[in-house]
Amino acid sequence: MLSVTPATQQTSLTQQTLHGIQQTFQHLINQHAQTQQEARQAQRWQQALYNSFAVWDWEGSTRRLFCSEEWTNLLGLPHDTIRSVRMMLKRIHPEDRPVFKNTLKKLFDGSVSKLDCEIRFKHAWEDYIWLRTRARVTDCTDEGTAQRVIGTSVNITARKKAEEEIYDLCQQLHNSEVLYRELMKNASDAILIVDKQDDRIIDANLHASDLSGYSMKELMGMERCQLLKNPDGGSIPCQDKGLIRDMLLISRHGQQHIVDISRTTVHVSGRHLAQCIIHDVSEHKAIEKRLQHLAHHDPLTGLPNRILFRDRLQHALHKAQRNNTLLALCFFDLDHFKSINDSFGHDAGDRVLTCIAERLEKTIRASDTAARLAGDEFVVILEDLEHQDLIQPIASKILSRINQPITVARQQVRVTSSLGISLYPLDTLDSDTLLNQADTAMYRAKKNGSGLEFYTISEDLDQESLDLWPITQKRSE
């Protein structure tokens, strides 16, 4: 028998479908506005960094190399002169080019994670200058190839010339001691002369005294290991000629300086002496650390960003598999966050986000990880869970802390959130699927008004598709 649906019922279904599509498009528009705000903020941080330091930034997707104005100034070139790796290689000394090119290739294909070398670059109006260049992969593909590499350079020409002059001069020490003394006195780096027989300092320059905080008299006769230490606790060898990096110089007051030490063996009147030229790289290391932090943390809240979150999630999954424990992934966002921005302005919205981040860090355990993915979306990785019953009390505590009122523009604003939870290995073994499942559960909690929901595999498939579609669209933007 043929069944005919009444026209009024068809109209009702059509209206419901149109209403659902309108809601979906509005959600996409709101998310796009938040994404643009995040991009502008990240661009401001990046621009401030590029204006202050000699930085180069290689983008894997476009194969384009961006060099900051400070970096091109090192070579006496106009800004935006170097726009590709090939153009950079052309300015490197022919003797240094193969080694740098080979190391850079290993960095790009994922064989190594960082680069640290001293190479000569052709200056615009001078001869070649020495640059110490350090670089690190800050983003990579699933196959391990580099997607983004950020590097810094510092001019070490004066130091290299001083090392060469001092080395040559040391060979003639017995004929020109007065000249050597004058060179040591005016050297820009700290210099120590150590008797290799008992490993004690027998001479030093004023810069060594200034850096260490010890007087010249106090340095004389001091054991080298009292002043210079290996970060891993071992001794620093002084028998071999060469450069050792990232050692520690401990000052009189306990301050630790990160130093590079260039060593040379000198034979004078039958004595075997070690000359140590000490270059303080603490400031450069601090810049590197800052760059590394900016690459892996959200500039507004200081929480791990999406890149660091994915790395920590992978480590947490491996750990849970190895220890046979549970892992819970909590995904939440703030309800009606757009209305806060619209009513009080984006500065107030930023204040709410930073307050939420602070509450998260104070609420979760030391073994857990909180991260901000984008906009008002946050995730928390709960590790080392022996029983499933432990998860809901922890998640409820997180929600309770987040939902406390926040003072915005001298007004108490009630903030609420919806939180979804997915479990490893009960729901899935894959990190991306685990994130999508938590996302799905979060939107079900938002729709039901329950505040907190666990992912259930028996959810209605049509509803699950409707929940996932706008989120998938948002993340592909």
From TrEMBL:
<feature type="domain" description="PAS">
    <location>
        <begin position="47"/>
        <end position="111"/>
    </location>
</feature>
<dbReference type="InterPro" id="IPR013655">
    <property type="entry name" value="PAS_fold_3"/>
</dbReference>
<dbReference type="InterPro" id="IPR035965">
    <property type="entry name" value="PAS-like_dom_sf"/>
</dbReference>
<dbReference type="InterPro" id="IPR043128">
    <property type="entry name" value="Rev_trsase/Diguanyl_cyclase"/>
</dbReference>
<dbReference type="InterPro" id="IPR052155">
    <property type="entry name" value="Biofilm_reg_signaling"/>
</dbReference>
<dbReference type="InterPro" id="IPR029787">
    <property type="entry name" value="Nucleotide_cyclase"/>
</dbReference>
<protein>
    <submittedName>
        <fullName>Diguanylate cyclase with PAS/PAC sensor</fullName>
    </submittedName>
</protein>
<feature type="domain" description="GGDEF">
    <location>
        <begin position="325"/>
        <end position="460"/>
    </location>
</feature>
<dbReference type="Pfam" id="PF13188">
    <property type="entry name" value="PAS_8"/>
</dbReference>
<dbReference type="InterPro" id="IPR000014">
    <property type="entry name" value="PAS"/>
</dbReference>
<dbReference type="InterPro" id="IPR000160">
    <property type="entry name" value="GGDEF_dom"/>
</dbReference>
<dbReference type="GO" id="GO:0003824">
    <property type="term" value="F:catalytic activity"/>
</dbReference>
<dbReference type="Pfam" id="PF00990">
    <property type="entry name" value="GGDEF"/>
</dbReference>
<dbReference type="Pfam" id="PF08447">
    <property type="entry name" value="PAS_3"/>
</dbReference>
<feature type="domain" description="PAS">
    <location>
        <begin position="176"/>
        <end position="232"/>
    </location>
</feature>
